[in-house]
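Protein modeling request. Please complete all fields; requests missing the sequence field cannot be processed.
Requester role: graduate student
Desired output: 3D structure, token encoding
Chains: 1
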Amino acid sequence: MSLIQLLPEHVANQIAAGEVVNRPASAVKELLENAVDAGADDIHLLVRDAGKTLIQVIDNGCGMSAEDAVKCFLRHATSKIRQADDLYTLKTMGFRGEALASIAAVACVELKTKRAEDETGSLVCMEGEKQAPVQACACPNGTQISVKNIYFNTPARRQFLKTDEVEYRYIEEEFVRVAMAHPEIKWRFTRDEKQVYHLEPGTFRQRIVQLMGRAFEQRLVRVHESAGDVDIDGFICTPEYTTRNRSKQYVFVNTRYVKHIGLSHAIETAYRQLVPEKNYPAYFLRLAVKPETIDVNIHPTKTEIRFDDEKLIYGVLLSVVKHAIGVTQLAPALDFDNVNDVVVPTRKPLGFPEPPRLNLDPNYDPFAVEYRQGGKKASYASDVVRRGDSLQAQLQFYKDTFSAGSASAGDSVASVSPDSADAELPVQGRPTRSEMAIGTSRMSKINAEPGGAVRLSAETLAAESDLGNKFMQFALAYIVSTVKSGLLFVDQQAASERIIYERYMKSRRQNETQVGQRILFPQTIQLAPAQSEVLKEIREKLALWGWEIEWVGGGSFIVNAVPAQTREEEIASLIENTVDDYIGKMMNVRGRQEDNVAAALARQTSVRHGQVLSREEMMSLINGLFASSCPHWSPSGRRTYWIMPESDIRQAFTSNK
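Delivered output (657 residues):
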């Protein structure tokens, strides 16, 4: 008995469907690309129940004959290629000939199509590969294809789908990719009988603004270059605008959206040292290359490609983006289109300017006792610096001042050697150079040794959880303290995230609604259609934590109130990043909407790396972290602290290697 058997046709089609149609968004992508290949200039996408009930694409393309309407559902049926060599000269989106066959294997499909030269159209109905006889029907020129009850015959596949909101976001992203690649086409997108997008034909820049929001009008920088076999055209965003994820990074090669690690690395390398850590630039770039120099037949979804000369593409893209960023950085300072004559001030023809008058107080004595009492030490320090007294006199003043009791308030200062070339005064309220070097605004529990050396105080901690008051900030990102078993490193951003998240969730458990601070002049913000739909859904949750956001139509919102201590200049970016963060969490993890909103908001309002913290702020962060229910991890899954054992430190000093 032979062990190897040929699979039945319907089983083979369902296996192919697992590669091509792994979720409703995959079917949307294939149908939209077919409409583009048909030469349509008006395409309408309709979905119901996130594509689970209905996916319909209506186009005004070339249409098909009755014979072709039947053949298109056969496996490997395609109008794009005739021989193997055609794979290397492809200029169309689809070519495998598996899309419609795979979709029909797991859904009920209805196809209406008509060519301009035909009097009537053709109707073909498929139900799990069972095809009904083709019928004549009345329909406009073009093609209408409806995919109903996807995965009706494979319930195991259906149960692995995520929530309707998540699946809809995947569909929306596929729509945005295809619509952005073809700005010359009119696009419409209707979700559950409600129109979400209506995109009129225009330029690439106009299409980006239509999809991303009017705020991008001022962020875009043109990129255009032709070098060898590659033409690069599109837009990058200024370094001032970044996102916490890669959701606004689009690269198209011959109008095909692609994911390519090398291209992304080249662009992000150009932005290096210009954007904050773990932030990502936004860009929308189109590359045109000769079809024979790329291979698009390496992945079923056709989003991955291989270049014939990747090093050349990498180098050209890196150079072009760097040049565009450099021109943008110089443009505000060097505006050659607006040349103004230099106005040289002149003195009067007769006479000379009067010399300045100096009003000096002959009785002023900076070393008088009253200047050391009554809380005037800070103003006196400013006077010392302003008067330019000798460094020795200034140091003597601080020595007398702090020995008189100021150090007892809990703030010690580092000693400064008068012979040091880098010596500077630790003026109250301003960090010294030595303090800034270790990233702390006020050094606590620091004693001076002879010669100006600085060491931490010698008190030891009684227990592992007793952190005392001895911490410092390292690299403006980590809080370092001694514990019983070694050194404790706390990630200030991850710890802040955990504390804020638990504060939000605690207020919800206790049914507490935070009152926001009213804005004197309400701020209007503009969001992309995708973001505005999400904000309309979650703004009621945001209102529980002090946000008052009013939708005024389209992608426009008015912010009337914000949580306390929120800076007005950060409102727009804070909301935009929170929405993007929420979308990312919703698509990658399961959870309640309230939890995801709180986690996204906590991430955007947390303490950042690079932010200088005072001793009190560091103490508050550490105490709050270890008082939380889950101090080990942030809501976004990052480790909050790490302990370096004392044994590892000893080994580092005793090792011979």
